[in-house]
Specification:
Elements lengths: L2 H5 L5 E5 L4 E5 L6 H4 L5 E7 L3 E3 L4 E6 L5 E6 L4 E5 L12 E3 L6 E2 L4 E5 L1 H7 L5 E5 L7 E4 L2 E4 L5 E6 L1
Antiparallel strand pairs: 1-14, 2-3, 2-13, 3-11, 4-10, 5-6, 5-9, 6-7, 7-11, 8-10, 12-14
């Protein structure tokens, strides 16, 4: 029997940086049960202080929602990630959002994905809170979360997923 079988596969860690600049909070504090109760998956949320969403890690862009308020990514190790800008922002029909990537693009940590008008979101959405969710959380053996009063987009580590 080989050592690989004896000890199992080597653990892979995916390190997520904050997708936005702002306060990093627990997903359970998102005022929407779909996120707070982790129906979509586990993760963190950001209360943004700036209207830029960056790639939290090296990934492939899977989907940009037609209303530009959300983006789906896939990490190099197969984790599927949803970044949902604000709550009830789907009702804004893309107004105030500018997308800088297309499905199929490969992005590096910190690369600009979407810009949005934070004031417009404050006026028109239920909340500016932006969840980052690992959709296929079942692949994650352990998820370490780091909360911060002020995290900088593309800089602060917010999640470490062991898969």
């Amino acid at each position: 029997m080989g050592l690989g079988k004896l000890f199992g596969k080597k653990e892979i860690k995916e390190i997520f940086k904050s997708p936005l600049t702002g306060k990093i909070i627990p997903i359970e504090e998102v005022p929407d049960p779909a996120f707070a109760e982790k129906m979509m998956g586990d993760g963190i949320a950001v209360i943004p202080t700036a209207g830029k969403v960056v790639a939290p890690l090296n990934a492939k862009v899977l989907q940009v929602f037609p209303t530009k308020h959300a983006i789906g990514l896939e990490s190099e190790n197969g984790l599927e990630i949803l970044i949902h800008i604000g709550l009830d922002t789907v009702n804004m029909h893309g107004e105030g959002f500018t997308v800088h990537v297309n499905p199929g693009d490969y992005v590096k940590t910190g690369e600009l994905l979407i810009e949005f008008n934070l004031d417009l979101v404050k006026e028109n959405a239920t909340s500016t809170i932006t969840p980052l969710v690992i959709i296929n959380s079942d692949k994650v053996k352990k998820l370490e979360k780091q909360y911060k009063q002020q995290g900088e987009a593309g800089v602060e580590e917010v999640l470490i997923a062991s898969i």
